[in-house]
Amino acid sequence: MTSVSSLFNSLPVQNTQVAFEDGFRNMLEDHIPVLLLASGTTTQNVDPAVAYQFNNDFYGLIATLGVVWYMQWITMRMNGYTDPSEYTSDNLSIVIPPISVINQLLNVYQNISSVVG
């Protein structure tokens, strides 16, 4: 049986443009150690031909792996890159955070921002 909480955590977050705000990105940076250890964080193996196709295009690569657009930046940071062009085709495994945890952090950030205003 699926809990209401797990259903809520898997829903897309409203106003995901917040994902581009410096404050939210700072919050995510602070949580990278937690995200790396979170249950649900996965390592996706990349086929060498696909890796070659997306050499120097990390965002293109992870989009093909199904990473939603508002999670691309934190996925890049969790993999040690500061720019998507840093990705090289010799990296055949990508760490992907759980969408539920990112959505929870996004909701917390939005709630705090609405109170602080």
Walk me through what this model shows.
- The chain has helices at 4-10, 22-30, 32-37, 48-53, 58-64, 72-78, 99-116, and strands at residues 42-45, 93-96.
- It is mostly helical.
- It has one domain (16-110).
- Strands 1-2 form a two-stranded antiparallel sheet.
- The longest helix has 18 residues, at 99-116.
- The N and C termini lie far apart (38 Å).
- The model is unreliable at 1-11 (pLDDT under 50).
Distinct helical segment count: 7
Structural classification:
mainly alpha
In percent, how much strand structure appears in the residues? 5-15%
Number of strands: 2
Helix content: 40-55%
Q: Low-confidence stretches at least 5 residues in length (pLDDT < 50)?
A: 1-11
Task: Write down the domain tally.
Answer: 1
Taking strands numbered 1, 2, ... along the chain, how are they ordered across the largest sheet? 1-2
Describe the oligomeric state of these chains in a short phrase. single chain
Written as H for each helix and E for each strand, in order along the chain, the element string is: HHHEHHHEH
Overall 3D form: elongated
If you average the pLDDT, what whole number results?
87
Rg calc: 15 Å
